[in-house]
Amino acid sequence: MNSAKRKEEQAVANGGAKLSPWTKALRTDAAWEDKDEFLDVIYWIRQIIAVILGVIWGVVPLKGFVGIAIFCVINAGVLYLYFSSFQKIDEEEYGGTWELTKEGFMTSFALFLVVWVIFYTAIHFD
């Protein structure tokens, strides 16, 4: 266990304040005691990515299967890099790489489509 995780656990044990999930999400040395907390962070990062890409795709204007395929690759790729390289968590604790990769994917895909259609229609409607 690295020293930052040990310090955080000691601070909590000594009555210190527990870090918020978003503070831990931005730190590479965060200790995730609660698995559901980390899965919630994965879920909400996916939703943020969906809104950002939906706006970009609507403004650009990107159409069709190419837009959907690029969204899927970016969404899955960014989250994979986040939990494997940035957070360096043990994927097996969460059910494997596939479970983390698909966490919240369908809701982010639906949100992406809604935002994409709204922005595309609003800007490029003839």
TrEMBL record:
The chain crosses the membrane at residues 41-59, 65-83, 104-123. It is found in: Endoplasmic reticulum membrane. Signal peptide: none annotated. The keyword Disulfide bond does not apply. GO terms for cellular component: endoplasmic reticulum membrane; mitochondrion. Pfam families: EMC6 (PF07019). InterPro entries: EMC6-like (IPR029008), RCAF1 (IPR010742). Its main location: endoplasmic reticulum. Belongs to the EMC6 family. This is RAB5 interacting factor. The lineage of its organism: Eukaryota, Metazoa, Chordata, Craniata, Vertebrata.
